[in-house]
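Recap slide: AP-3 complex subunit beta, sequence and predicted structure.
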Amino acid sequence: MSSNSFSYNEQSGGGEATELGQEATSTISPSGAFGLFSSDLKKNEDLKQMLESNKDSAKLDAMKRIVGMIAKGKNASELFPAVVKNVASKNIEIKKLVYVYLVRYAEEQQDLALLSISTFQRALKDPNQLIRASALRVLSSIRVPIIVPIMMLAIKEASADLSPYVRKNAAHAIQKLYSLDPEQKEMLIEVIEKLLKDKSTLVAGSVVMAFEEVCPDRIDLIHKNYRKLCNLLVDVEEWGQVVIIHMLTRYARTQFVSPWKEGDELEDNGKNFYESDDDQKEKTDKRKKPYTMDPDHRLLIRNTKPLLQSRNAAVVMAVAQLYWHISPKSEAGIISKSLVRLLRSNREVQYIVLQNIATMSIQRKGMFEPYLKSFYVRSTDPTMIKTLKLEILTNLANEANISILLREFQTYVKSQDKQFAAATIQTIGRCATNILEVTDTCLNGLVCLLSNRDEIVVAESVVVIKKLLQMQPAQHGEIIKHMAKLLDSITVPVARASILWLIGENCERVPKIAPDVLRKMAKSFTSEDDLVKLQILNLGAKLYLTNSKQTKLLTQYILNLGKYDQNYDIRDHTRFIRQLIVPNEKSGALSKYAKKIFLAQKPAPLLESPFKDRDHFQLGTLSHALNIKATGYLELSNWPEVAPDPSVRNVEVIELAKEWTPAGKAKQENSAKKFYSESEEEEDSSDSSSDSESESGSESGEQGESGEEGDSNEDSSEDSSSEQDSESERESGLENKRTAKRNSKEKEKKTKQDRTPLTKDVSLLDLDDFNPVSTPVALPTPALSPSLMADLEGLNLSTSSSVISVSTPAFVPTKTHVLLHRMSGKGLAAHYFFPRQPCIFGDKMVSIQITLNNTTDRKIENIHIGEKKLPIGMKMHVFNPIDSLEPEGSITVSMGIDFCDSTQTASFQLCTKDDCFSVNIQPPVGELLLPVAMSEKDFKKEQGVLTGMNETSAVIIAAPQNFTPSVIFQKVVNVANVGAVPSGQDNVHRFAAKTVHSGSLMLVTVELKEGSTAQLIINTEKTVIGSVLLRELKPVLSQG
């Protein structure tokens, strides 16, 4: 400690520092427990000067030292004022360390922290998401009731933040606020309800943890979010997965019927006298109705299965307990292999896993029988692991494998670990009682152990033999005689007491030996253990009743010794026996039944597993590990007899294009898209603060798509300034999309009239069995317009870019989005869709068609676009004003928007003669692309250039039928406006496109692997768009 105490002063004065270090122990300050470390005043003065320096490097160095002091357990609280001054520093690194310091001392130094409340509140508005989150953490760490309203307000604001990282911290703060002031429960539940709707994987685990802490009984909050949580589960961080899985296990037990009733129906053929034949028939039909699993029940089981391969033991354990508690018994077997894999982990993980396997193996032996050898004991295992493995081996023992196990047990008995050896002997006894064929073999083996040199082994053998002999005492008189001889050598009290009990119970079968044993015991009575003394008294009483001629005086002598024993229990026992067996005038009616009382038939002991009564606790919980209900444990409810209404889990579909059957699918895909775009922003934000700020703009766009138009307008306008940098990067090449689309429209007509020989190259994709109403992919013509040539040359990706041509987009069903609901628009309804056609208003613009409907009974006049709130760089070409729209009338108009290669929201006002309505349009990332036709050779060449940071990939798991060429093509083009690239390999599917604004290539590869997996690879210079597209394609390709 002394060397640490002066380490900071070695620069200025070595001698003084040494002196201070040596005297540190004697100058303990009485001010507090950390006085020992506060003695070096110069050190802290030095740090204060550094913190007040004008140089960021000095401040950063000081903060690093202070955090180092805290890590070593030193008290740095007196530096609080100097540190707080730097909370407004512009240097992000300093700010981060200041907040680390404040989180540590906010609770301890509440008064000082309260002085800085205004600083933290300002930081909650900081443009950097890391600072906003840190400020919220500090605020929630000041545990003072007076600031509860401020904390509540901060949590509410943070829950609507554009950054998922801040929203995640809001969820963490909910738990802290609830523990500080439980009266805030109702308001916190409102925030939890809002955050549960969040589509970011970063937030999901934290908000479910808050739900479990604050309102675990409010299952109704989960209904609408159930399917979303199931689908997002694979992408949530590991500890979030554990929390969500445990919560969904409880949810499933309340919402679905038991999948275990398939063969358990009891036959009830009895007919009630008053029942009609029709009633009887109805009851029979009801009883014979086969079990069908709820699709949502199956969704949960299917989506958790991949997590059995997780690297995190807690996740695997959580999935295992879910399968155990809610899956059909026929499917639960898949968890055994994953649990056995965890036995290669450290001993703490092994201990918990083995406990759970021990509980499972009692009810379903077949699950773990194939892995019997995995439970053999190793010499390096600690005792706790050895005994658990023994327990499992005992549970798995049957007639087929008992001979192998007994040979294994023989080795264990010789172990130097005496506790383990004793446990093995008990295990042999349990095997003998469970498997009657080996009872005699086990008994003979235990008798052989009686000659062992180790007293503990002998004592344990005696105890186990005693239990075995209770089952069939008449056949084993010789063993009892042999054990009587051991009384001279065995000193362990339990073993001696067991032998005496056995002789007493069988005293009529060994009439010559029993009195002699009593004689020897009378000699040593005073020096025996209390347990042995009680058995000597019992033996004397039994012999007095069966052989009083030989043992009457001996028994009276023992009773007299017991009468004056130091232990009151023995004295009481002696008096009781004397009154019971020695009749006199005071004896009551019980004396007549003394023999029946003492020599009554004793039931044989039941040797059961200590884990038998643990199955009522949920596996993997602390309560199961301790076999005691722990604080906060939430019990699993019994399965309901009748399943609650499944429609509560249905989510309202906002889209109105019901005439297209695939549009329903498109909505599901949209919901997946929204989430994946959103969470991508968080990953990139970890690289640098500027990145995180610029990407929060795309986050605002994602929220707009969820239907919360009002919030989205404010968010996008507030955040537009933070996106200025990112937009300047994105403006480098948007000019190519519209012209190319116009050309592709002309080419589509041409290709329909006369097809080129290239049809052969894409024969795999030229299929119409997946979509009866769609046309095949239109193929490119070799002719290129001058403007298209200019666009392609602008890509600057390779010298041979002239071989890359824009192709006609594949026809896909129209996906319609709500722009203005008729209720919000006072009778005016508006919907929009992306026709994937060239925009007539500009080459850089995405074409959008808007359908306006008048649902009122009066004419709507002067429909036009009003005020526009567009992020920097974004441009919009509006439609011409509509003079009037007749009642029940409808009109479709076109407009163009230059989105600058981003998924930002375009906010504007749709106005009539009397009103203005705020609306917004947000493009899916797939609509920002233009399909490109290129050869396989050129594709590989361009892909070779776009590697490293320009490449993102993901592994997809789906059924083999979802990996046919037609299905892959359909799914990819539904999500993104891309063109198919001919492929010479059956297992590789390639697609190409370019971004509208910058003309950057977007290369998509789906490579099928062995089994039911595939790799999705995207190569592009626009890494943000590429990452968003990857996250949208992944769930779509994984769906059945």
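The radius of gyration is 40 Å.
The domain at 927-1038 is CATH 3.30.310.10 (TATA-Binding Protein).
(End of recap.)
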